[in-house]
Design a protein that fits this description.
alpha/beta, FAD/NAD(P)-binding domain, six-stranded mixed sheet, four-stranded parallel sheet, 27 strands, elongated, 11 helices
């Protein structure tokens, strides 16, 4: 099959001889790769089933109404699409043929010279997928919208409820997972509920607002230093978050979470249940493992070589949350966060450019930028190479780090201004109830071609006006 650079008009003649690099996934790693390869002597095709880059670390702020969707998402075409050598295609890769060097998406085969998979990760319910409808995860915009919609709808219903028990039930939230995402979500939701009840709802009492953080671990933020975990726990409890640690989620039913711990079983009743407990690599990891024999770890991540390639297939690489990279100085696997993804993507892109000229670059070395989590307004915890920061100092470091990683300047400015406004006024700017119930279920975006009555069209009329982008349930 001929490998070609997709254009409605023929590409520049010089590009036909350039190596074709296909990047699957426009997240932190994929975007970094495109930025480095832009305007270089390579043809780049970026494939993603969403047409935007999402800054996932701030999804909880969308869920709690601090910012809007557009503040943490930027169209890929505006970010890298202006580079003449980068083609952006909307679609989901459903198969890979390593021997033929082809990927399959939108029902067609496309060739590559170099393939880079950066499709990230999703949520896992540890074999209890039926819980997804009852406890939305927090991995995409629709998830955050659904959490916000459920909570705000519960408060609206509580405002019209005369039964005190029902009102307390409607004002209760359970967050499963005490990692950074769970702690950030719990702290932000309790702040939202307290402020909303104080200022905007006439029939509700702040004492009925309840956020319960649940996890099997014995302390919040278990991957961080114990003093920082203790500081975070203290601030969360001071803000009104209840910690139920050392408990396993035994079952989830509508409005009910059953827990099992060393002291026995207990039951929590809550109108809103959120899930931040499990992460698993995208399904391309399993697919490529079947196609190449590459080993995967317990989280479904591909165990890659020191240059991020698949063993036996030097033309295929996996970066970000999709790869299990243990070729570090301390032999510890790279964490699935933004920092390692950006660094890995940048190294792979530079390695590709160096090989084009017969050169080599220094082996990949990850620079640990530290870990951090924001727990409430003006309060965060941060571990910077053993230096522990809490409170305002931690929040400043957290804010600067996140603003630095935001890839879009407009979003960076918008976020900073909204943070300052919220801190000064305690008002949230995105408390809209939108969407339909359960819009997070089966979310998918693909390219669907409608059938036209005409049996044929001239080549010059092969337009995309009959294609529909569907977010389906």
């Amino acid at each position: 099959m001929e490998r070609f650079f997709l254009e409605l008009d023929p590409p520049e003649q010089v590009m036909r001889s350039w190596p074709h690099v296909v990047v699957v996934g426009g997240g932190f790693a994929g975007l970094k790769i495109c930025h480095i390869l832009a305007r270089q002597p390579v043809r780049v095709t970026l494939i993603d089933k969403r047409n935007f880059n999402l800054f996932q670390p701030l999804l909880y702020q969308v869920a709690s109404g601090l910012v809007s969707e557009a503040d943490i998402a930027s169209p890929l075409r505006q970010m890298v699409g202006d580079a003449p050598n980068i083609q952006i295609l909307l679609g989901e890769v459903v198969d890979i043929d390593p021997e033929a060097r082809q990927v399959v998406f939108n029902g067609q085969h496309y060739g590559y010279d170099q393939l880079i998979l950066a499709t990230g990760s999703g949520s896992t319910y540890f074999g209890r997928e039926e819980w997804r409808a009852l406890a939305p995860p927090m991995k995409i915009l629709e998830h955050a919208d659904e959490i916000r919609r459920r909570l705000l709808m519960a408060l609206e219903e509580a405002e019209q409820t005369t039964d005190p028990k029902q009102r307390a039930f409607l004002q209760t939230v359970v967050v499963v997972g005490a990692g950074p995402a769970g702690c950030e979500l719990a702290g932000s939701l309790i702040e939202l509920m307290h402020r909303a009840v104080q200022r905007n709802f006439k029939q509700l009492r702040q004492s009925d607002c309840r956020v319960v953080l649940v996890d099997l671990v014995d302390r919040v933020l278990p991957t961080m230093a114990a003093p920082l975990s203790a500081a975070a726990a203290g601030h969360l409890e001071g803000a009104g978050v209840e910690l139920q640690l050392g408990f396993k989620v035994e079952s989830i039913a509508p409005g009910r979470v059953c827990l099992l711990g060393s002291a026995g079983a207990q039951q929590l009743e809550a109108a809103t249940i959120c899930w931040t407990a499990g992460v698993r690599a995208s399904r391309l990891g399993k697919l490529l493992s079947e196609r190449t024999g590459c080993a995967v770890d317990r989280g479904g991540r591909l165990e890659v070589s020191p240059d991020f390639s698949i063993p036996g297939y030097p033309d295929i690489r996996a970066v970000g949350d999709l790869c299990s990279y243990s070729h570090t100085i301390d032999a510890k696997t790279l964490p699935g966060t933004a920092g390692p993804a950006v660094q890995a993507g940048g190294w792979v892109a530079r390695d590709i450019l160096a090989r084009l000229t017969g050169q080599t670059i220094a082996p990949f070395r990850w620079q640990d930028l530290g870990t951090m989590a924001v727990i409430g307004p003006w309060y965060a915890v941060a571990d910077l190479w053993g230096v522990h920061l809490t409170g305002l100092a931690g929040w400043v470091v957290w804010a600067l780090a996140h603003l630095a990683f935001i890839p879009d300047t407009e979003n960076r400015i918008a976020l900073f201004s909204k943070w300052m406004w919220q801190i000064a006024t305690r008002q949230r700017t995105a408390l809209l109830i939108t969407g339909r119930p359960d819009q997070h279920l089966g979310v998918d975006v693909g390219l669907f071609r409608a059938e036209r009555p005409e049996l044929s069209r001239s080549p010059g009329r092969r337009l995309l006006d009959e294609q529909h982008l569907l977010v389906g349930g």
